Amino acid sequence: CDAFREGDDNAATEELAALRAGAARAAALGLEVHAGHGIDYDTVGAISAIPEVVELNIGHFLIGEAVFVGLSPAIARMRELMDTARPAEPMA
Asked: What ranges do the domains of the chain cover?
């Protein structure tokens, strides 16, 4: 997230690839994958798109954003970005 915000596209791409590989490995070992710390509106899409990620720890960002826009709008925008990155799977 820091590399993305700093405009270092190469580092951001490398870090995202490392996160994807780590998440895949963790899931293969039977671990539940969570992500957080630094995720915001601009970075949540890339992290949400990692299929092994089952939980995002984004409360700190949302509360900070809620100071400016209100809690409901902050949550609604984050939910929309998450859903766009990884649409809900159809029910069986």
From this structure: 2-85
Contact partners, residue 79, CB within 8 Å, separation at least 6: none
| Structure-token pair, residue 38 | 């630094």
Phi/psi for 6 (5° steps) reads: -80, -5
Which pTM was predicted?
Answer: 0.84
Using the predicted structure, report yes or no on whether residue 73 has a pLDDT greater than 80: yes
Per the CB < 8 A criterion, the answer to whether 57 and 18 are in contact is no
Closest alpha carbon to 48 in 33, 61, 60: 33
The C-alpha atoms of residue 58 and residue 21 are separated, in whole angstroms, by 21
Alpha helices in the chain (DSSP H): 2-5, 9-28, 44-48, 59-69, 71-85
